[in-house]
Structure formats: C-alpha cells, structure tokens
Amino acid sequence: MKLKKVLAVGLVIVMAAMAGTGCSRNNGKATNTDSGEGDDKEVVTLNFMGWEASPLETAAVEDGIAIFEKEHSDIKINYTSSTGGSEYNAKLLSAAASKSMPDVMFMMSSAYRQFVSKGTLLEITDKFNEEFSLDDFIDSSKEIMSIDGKVYGVSSCTVSPILYYNKDVFDEAGVEYPSSDPANAWTIDEFREVAKKLTTDDIYGCYGLETVGGGGTDTLTPQIISGGGSRYSDDFKTSTMNTPEAKKVMETIKAIRVEDGSAPDATTLDSVGMTAAQMLETGKVAMLLDGSWALQELAAAGMHVGMAPLPSYGKVVTTGQAHLHCIASGTKYPEQAWEFVKFLSSLDYQGSLISSGLWMPNRKSMYEEDMVEKWYKQEVHGDSYKNMLDYFQDAVVDPSALQYSSKCSDIVSEETKLYFTDAQDLDKTLQNIDKRSNEAIAEALE
Q1: Model confidence over 246-296: pLDDT tens digits?
Q2: Pairing between strand 44-51 and 104-107?
Q3: Please, are residues 388 and 310 in contact by the beta-carbon 8 Å criterion?
Q4: Residue 175 in contact with residue 194, Cβ under 8 Å?
Q5: What angle do CA 36, 40, 44 make, to 5 degrees?
Q6: Who has the most CB within 10 Å: 78, 358, 389, 446?
Q7: By C-alpha distance, which of 334, 390, 204 is closest to 282?
Q8: How far is Cα 381 from Cα 2, in angstroms, rounded to an integer?
Q9: Would you say 341 and 347 are in contact if contact means Cβ atoms under 8 Å apart?
C-alpha cells in the first residue's frame, strides 16, 4: 500500500527532521539559509492561525513551519496563536465578516459546518482525493470532514475521552485496576462502587464525569450515548437532550458527587489551585475522565498512570473528533495554501505529536500492527493503550462536530453547570438546553 509506505517513512524520519531544520526564525517568519535553486523565486507569505492547546503542540507547529519553509523556499508562514474555544470562533467569524480571514487555519470541528455554510472555507475535494483516500481515515474523522460528499478541511488527528487512574492510589487501597479491554469495561455501577472505596478524607475517588467542552474533553456526551440517549436529531438540526436517558445519566453523575461524596466539583480544584491532571498526579483524585491528549502531560510527569475505557451505561463507547486544517475561500494563494495543508496532514508534522501521547492517529493504516510499532512508545503509552486501539479507532463521532452552531457546546456547559451546582433543577436544565440550542442552530442556518 503506497500510503502506508509513505506514512512509515514519515514516522521514521520525523524526529530527525524536527531536530534540525536549516532555517532561522525571524518575527514569526522563516528565512531560508540555503542557497541555490529557488532563491530567485517570488516569495508568497501565508497567514496561518491556530490556538495553543499545549506548549508541546505549539512547539511542534513552529518546528513544522520551519521544516515546511525549508522544503518550500518560495512560501513563508506567518503564524498567529490565539486563545481557543469560543473566543477563537468569534475572532474567525469577525475576520470572515470583514473578509480578512487567515489563508490557513485551525478549525474547531464544532464550528466546521457553520463556516462551510457561510461559504468561508475553500472546497478542496479534488485536491484531497489526489493525495489521500477518504476511506483510510477512521469513521469519525471521515464523517466530520465529508459534507454532502465534499471536503473543506483535513482532519488533523483524533482525540477521545477516556478513564485515567493513579495506580499508586489503587495499590495502596488494595483495589484491582479497571480492565483496559473494552469487552470487560466497568459499568457505571462498578465504577461508582470503586470510587466510593477509594474516597477518603484526603482522596476523591473520581473527577470529570460532567465535563462538556471541545478538544476531546466532553465526557458527558459519550455517557449519554452509552445510555441510549443522543445530543441531536439525525439531521443534527434539533437538540434532543430532554430525554429520560440523558436525565438518568445526569442524575447518576450528581449522585456520585453529592450522595457518595466521591467527586469534587470544579470549585474545589480552583480553591486548591490544581488542574484535574495535577489532582490525579498528586493522588488527590484516584480516577479522572479526560481527553486522550492529557496522556502527554501525565507521561511527562512520570506518574504511575493507567488507562481504561469510560464506564458504560449499556454500550461501551467513546467519542472521537479533532480540529481540521482549512483554507479560506478568499485566499489569494490557494495552491500554496494547499501545499501547506498537505504538509500539516503528513507524518513529518504529525509524528512527534502522536508519539508524545498528545494526539492519536486518524488513519486506519496507522492502527495496523507494524505501523503501531513505529509510533507507539512504552514510556508514554504503557501497556493498556494497545488494548484500547480498536476502542479509539471505532469511536462514535462526537455529535458536536456535526451540528451547525458552535454555541451549542457552550449552552450545554452553562446549563449543566447550573444543575450540578444546585442552582437549577434537572427538568428545567434539559428544557433550556433544547430551547437555547435549537435557537442557536436556527440562527446559524439563516
């Protein structure tokens, strides 16, 4: 398979490529230090915009730009890193309205369809098909990229929410680790009982069950899907949160915190000045539901961590999504922008991020045994990760990536927070989510 060979070569050379680029940085641009062929070419500058998800990712972007500029002496990249989330989308929407969008950009999967509907992203279907096979992308990434059979952005990777646990806390309590085999995943009742056993005056049994957000940190949605519920209708134009299935999940999560006393709320973390990952690292929390990208931080800390599938309410499932790399429809340099997007989709760029644990591969060929050995690192991924490869590859697409307003995730986050902090009853919460989300989707579709 030609694609597989290309990916393999990319993984072999990526670390060496990142180590020495032959370029020097100057005010966010690269100056080629080589002489010879290409020096007299007209140089095109592409404006490129993203966000800082982690210092490692930002460093990888900058290193990747240096590699790209060395290979393309006639293209320079002016990179701007912005705040992520809602602020990032608002900035891009403002730029679109003023016809000043960057040539190439990170695009949140939850905003992708909204921007496509506004005609602000360049259709790249033909170029994509010449370079890639859509069928080689895992189903969740494939479903996100394809809109009515057309492609407007290339999925960067995939990330999924999973269960992390502090092995030292489990060992001290004499509690058996959760299985990393999805076929033997804990039910929510089993998870709840273990969380109670691990809870002491100094340790909370778990954290992160009610998280809603982007970047693979939405742990609430896969629980709702596991219990037979849904976030949206089949056409993703109507919110469907106000159901008995969603209600049961939210009642269970609240009971774990309030009735069992097994989980802190977010204000507890604020008061101690720790992130969720730091609470797990220091043994203040025994189990953490978080995005797969958190593995990079946990591995770098050298902690005794294990991974397992999310607890199930019936179906063992996680969700998958990640940002896309897109080109503005108004760019003056579509050919050069495509060359850059193509590079961002290569293993020359992606390899170090996958090996570090920050990203997971979104190509089916990358999950084949011989290819796994090229990016898998024992000191990062541990023993349990390999047992979960099918779990990641078969992830259900995160429904927030297929609806039409990026405001919907913010609405769910705002309303569920009111319920979990006792400021609003559950029926009102679910009614508000559907009403406000439907209004946001209708506005986006106008």
Answers
A1: 999 999 999 999 999 999 988 888 788 888 999 999 999 999 999 998 998
A2: parallel
A3: no
A4: yes
A5: 120
A6: 358
A7: 204
A8: 27
A9: no
Residues 20-32: tens digit of each pLDDT: 433 333 333 333 3
DSSP class of 38: T
For residue 109, give every residue at least 6 positions away whose Cβ sits within 8 Å of its Cβ, in sequence order, or none.
144, 155, 214, 321, 322, 323, 324, 398, 400, 401
Q: For 20, what's the count of Cα atoms within 13 Å in the CB-facing half-sphere?
A: 3
User: Is residue 326 helix, strand or coil?
Assistant: strand
Tell me the two tokens of residue 326.
Answer: 């897109």
What is the CB neighbour count within 10 angstroms for residue 237?
15
Q: Where are the domains of the chain?
A: 13-159+321-381, 161-317+405-445
> How many of the other CB atoms lie within 10 Å of CB of 234?
8
Task: Find the helix packing angle between 407-420 and 244-258, rounded to 10°.
Answer: 50
**CATH says 13-159+321-381 is which class?**
alpha beta
Q: Read off the DSSP letter of residue 124.
A: -
DSSP 356: T
Task: Tell me the pTM.
Answer: 0.88
Task: Indicate the Cα dihedral angle 16, 20, 23, 29, nearest 10°.
Answer: 70
List Cα–Cα distances, 12 to 61, 136, 342, in angstroms: 19, 20, 19
Higher-pLDDT residue of 92 and 271 is 92
Amino acid 30: pLDDT: 37
In this predicted model, what pLDDT tens digit does every residue of 379-431 receive, in sequence order?
Answer: 999 989 999 999 999 999 999 999 888 889 899 999 999 999 999 999 999 99
d(CA 412, CA 206): 22
Residues 29 and 33: their CA atoms lie apart, in Å, by 13
Cα(117)–Cα(114) distance, rounded to whole angstroms? Answer: 5
Which residue type occupies 278? Q
pLDDT value of position 216:
58
In the numeric block, which tokens belong to residue 227?
């219990």
Q: What stretches of 356-406 show up as alpha helix (H) in DSSP?
A: 369-375, 378-381, 384-387, 389-393
Q: Which residue, among 155, 414, 165, 141, has the nearest Cα to 294 in the 3D structure?
A: 165
Residue in the structure block whose two tokens are 């070419």: 41
- The span from the CA of 292 to the CA of 67, in Å, is 27
Q: How far is Cα 17 from Cα 427, in angstroms, rounded to an integer? A: 55
What's the length of the chain?
446
